[in-house]
Design goal:
The chain has 338 residues and is an alpha/beta fold. The protein folds into 2 domains: 119 residues, NAD(P)-binding Rossmann-like Domain (Rossmann fold, 3-Layer(aba) Sandwich); 183 residues, Dihydrodipicolinate Reductase, domain 2, CATH 3.30.360. The chain has an 8-stranded mixed sheet with strand order 8-9-10-7-11-12-13-14, with helices on one face. A 6-stranded parallel sheet has the order 3-2-1-4-5-6, with helices on both faces. Helix 5 links the parallel strand 5 and strand 6. Helix 4 packs parallel to helix 5, helix 5 packs antiparallel against helix 11 and helix 8 crosses helix 11. It starts with a strand and ends with a helix.
Length: 338
């Protein structure tokens, strides 16, 4: 593809190695030029010919780089996004983009002032399980929606070795900042801004100093209730995607395979990439005109995070609207910090 977007990634830990590097390097619309590796130099094993800078400023000051991926700890996002924008770069930043709503709005204002685009990395809009739920909802087969549940449960009793996630008083710590941006963004992508919301949080792991459980109740027009829940001590998760409407119900487990595949070296160009294993399909239950219950197995959609990078490319080269808008992120921050 002519005129690819020269791109640099500010960290090559799990995020850069799994969620950004494979997609940018395979997408013909991008030219992955450089990463930052402060300690061990390993990126060349996955990306032959990559430039490995020792410091963030070195990459940001590379005049040949057009797009900078900010995938460092959340507490550093504002600083690095500002640096990149002021250096004349477009920016793709991991969630959460910042810690406060004021910081978010200031970053978008700076992007406008510098004439650059600011993109937020909300890749789970393209999870196979969520895409399957969205397709069923949009089909209208559930009728008028009554309630929708989105869950992101894990069992991780041990504290994370990533101190920015576990340190009390450090901005952006805990499960609310870690996983709720995914669930809030999925709700917003389906239903927009809620009329109101409430939030409950808790700390349950031994010796934990930060929130490791949350439950959010979002109220929408038409009496629709949306519930977002996540916990780190959930031994037996219930279905993570549940929707009840006046004509039927749909439920599905959280089984998107992309992260696990990428961790195991299965890249997006593999024919098996993004397909869930058999037996993990969704279940649609409807009531027909005679009042009889009908149960249908709904094949899963293919997950593919490459769509996010395609969207970034279309915005930068074709002036298309990036699907995760400034308005969406402002609504997300209002719920996240509220």
């Amino acid at each position: 593809m002519s005129n690819p977007i020269s791109t640099g990634i500010l960290a090559y830990g799990m995020s850069g190695r799994v969620f950004q590097g494979p997609f940018i390097s395979l997408n013909p619309g991008f030219d992955l030029k450089a990463v930052v590796e402060r300690h061990e130099k390993k990126a060349h094993l996955d990306l032959p010919g990559i430039i490995s800078y020792d410091a963030v400023d070195d990459l940001i000051n590379d005049s040949s780089i057009e797009l900078v991926v900010v995938n460092t700890p959340p507490v550093t996002h504002v600083e690095y996004v500002k640096k990149a924008l002021l250096a004349g770069k477009h920016v793709l930043v991991e969630k959460p983009i910042a810690i406060t709503t004021a910081e978010v709005l200031a970053l978008y204002d700076l992007a406008r002032e510098t004439g650059k685009h600011l993109f937020v990395f909300q890749n789970r809009r393209w999870d196979s399980d969520f895409v399957s739920l969205k397709k069923v909802i949009e089909s209208g087969r559930l009728g008028s929606l009554i309630e929708v549940h989105l869950r992101f449960d894990r069992y991780k009793a041990a504290l994370s070795t990533k101190l920015f996630k576990e340190t009390k008083g450090l901005p952006g710590n805990g499960l609310v900042y870690d996983l709720s941006p995914h669930l809030i963004d999925q709700a917003i992508s389906l239903f927009g801004k809620p009329l109101s919301f409430t939030k409950t949080t808790g700390i349950f792991r031994q010796n934990s100093e930060v929130v490791d459980y949350f439950h959010m109740h979002l109220k929408y027009p038409g009496q629709l209730n949306v519930f977002l829940t996540s916990g780190l001590l959930i031994a037996q998760p219930t279905p993570s995607f549940v929707a009840h409407g006046t004509l039927g119900s749909f439920q599905k487990n959280r089984v998107d395979v992309q992260e696990a595949q990428l961790e195991n070296g299965i890249w997006p160009n593999d024919p098996a990439y993004g397909f869930e294993p058999e037996g993990e399909e969704g279940i649609l239950t409807t009531i027909n005109a005679d009042g009889e219950k009908q149960v249908e197995i709904i094949p899963s959609e293919r997950g593919n995070y490459m769509h996010l990078f395609d969207a970034v490319h279309h915005t930068l080269r074709n002036n298309a609207l990036y699907p995760i808008t400034e308005e969406h992120i402002a609504w997300q921050m209002e719920i996240l910090v509220g």
